[in-house]
Design goal:
Keywords: Membrane, Transmembrane, Transmembrane helix. Helix content is 26%, strand content 40%. By secondary structure, the chain is an alpha+beta fold. The protein has 2 domains: 32 residues; 130 residues, no CATH class. Strands 1, 2, 3, 4, 6, 8, 9 and 11 form an 8-stranded mixed beta sheet that branches. A 3-stranded antiparallel beta sheet has the order 5-7-10, with no helix packed on it. The longest helix has 30 residues. The radius of gyration is 24 Å and the shape is elongated.
């Protein structure tokens, strides 16, 4: 009888632990706050912010539609060897208190140039990437310190490096 009672005690204890872990995980995940951070972009004299309807080219502001039309004309009139294409997310996601920022910045395979980027908060560079060669991307950025939970946005500044050797 003692063996049977011991087995029952172990089963009851295991069930209590599983229920307690489930309760803790539920509480923890409900109190975990994710922050969506809008991103702005700057490449040379071209800049825009996610969600805006306006693109700034130098000192001139144009609508997103006009900018897209001009890009389509450029794509139609120039060979793809002369164009620079990248893929990027419109927002970054961060867990509150975390130093990891989840976003997407990708140097497209078609490109002939490398680039790196800075992440800027309140006119201060808080991260500088490694050089990204064509077909390389960044999904997670590890910051030196966590961002404030009330951050309103970040700016991504691109710096195009020299063309890849043998592409010209």
């Amino acid at each position: 009888m003692v063996k049977g009672e011991a087995k029952s005690s172990v089963h009851v204890f295991a069930i209590i632990i599983v229920v307690a872990l489930g309760c803790w995980f539920s509480w923890y995940s409900n109190h975990l706050k994710f922050i969506n951070i809008p991103l702005g972009y700057e490449i040379g004299n071209l800049s825009w912010k996610s969600g805006d309807e306006v693109v700034t080219v130098g000192s001139r502001k144009i609508s997103i539609e006009e900018f897209d039309r001009s890009q389509q004309e450029l794509n139609a009139n120039f060979s793809s060897n002369n164009l620079f294409q990248m893929k990027m997310s419109d927002k970054a996601i961060m867990k509150e208190g975390s130093k990891k920022l989840h976003l997407l910045v990708e140097n497209q395979t078609i490109n002939k140039a490398d680039f790196y980027f800075d992440i800027v908060l309140d006119d201060k560079v808080i991260y500088t990437s490694e050089v990204l060669k064509p077909s390389q991307k960044v999904n997670i950025v590890k910051l030196d310190k966590s961002l404030p939970s009330d951050v309103k946005g970040l700016m991504i500044k691109y710096h195009i490096s020299s063309p890849v050797e043998g592409s010209i």
